[in-house]
Amino acid sequence: MGRQPCCEKIGLKRGPWTIEEDHKLMTFILNNGIQCWRTVPKFAGLLRCGKSCRLRWINYLRPDLKRGAFSEMEENQIIELHARLGNRWSKIASHFPGRTDNEIKNHWNTKIKKKLRLLGINPLTHEAIEKKQDIVENESRSQNDRDQQEKDDGSVAGTAQLVSELESKDDFTLMDKAAAVSCQSESSSITTHQYLINNYEILSRNLEPQTCYSPSSISLEDSFRHLNYYSTTSSSSSGSVQVQQWIESVEDSMMLWDGIDHIDHRLFLS
DNA sequence: AAGTGTACCAACCGCCGAGCG
DNA sequence: CCGCTCGGCGGTTGGTACACT
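^ inputs. structure came back:
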């Protein structure tokens, strides 16, 4: 026979995790590590499926998670990777330490996809949206000189210039401008994708002037990677500080744990 | 103030490849 | 080799918060 079943679905809890459940799961994993997800809920005292525990850990409880908004640089990189890899979110996420595939997928679906559409880019193909072609071609014809110049030098300076010129046109809608710019890049030797990467910052600033990219929250990268080392040696003050930062971030995000001091002292700062 | 629409994101669902027995 | 489960993945859903009318 094969392996034992992952879990008995009957009687298992579903839905949002409580602070107590998070506490149990995190305490168990930090104490015992992860050998088999099927056994985790059993030994951690949770009425959850192992799969659910895994998801909760990976997407929310993992100490090396980088919380906070995506930076523009990260967004640009996501677009670039998506153009190459498609919806392979885990592959994309592997380029972003501390970010989860779920987080990137959500960000793509709620933010980036919308912006690309406004820019006249098909988020699936990263090509210019077909029906924008007429607008674009009309605009492009009137910009022949600029087009030629752009083709000649193969740079994105022309499109960037077009962006700023279009911005000054009050009777041209934002979407039209974006489409025109997008097509402008298509008609040149520059691909839509390259155009997007080069001008994304300019355009997104205009599309969402209210957007404020908050600085990333405290980066706790590597803290978990070094967790075992620091918890065993405990002689490294920097390690202790790093772990302490993680604990504080967890406390911030999960309110108060009744046993956080217990975990803190026994695992990290002994 | 209440109702409705929209955005966001945590969590679930179902599929698939790898691997165990 | 086969039957089966696990772990991982991508798609989707549902709940909540916020914005708008």
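Chain A has a mean pLDDT of 60. Residues 1-3, 14-17, 51-52, 55-56, 59-60, 102-103, 106-107, 109-111 of chain A lie near DNA strand B (CB under 10 Å from a C1').
thumbs up if we can close this ticket
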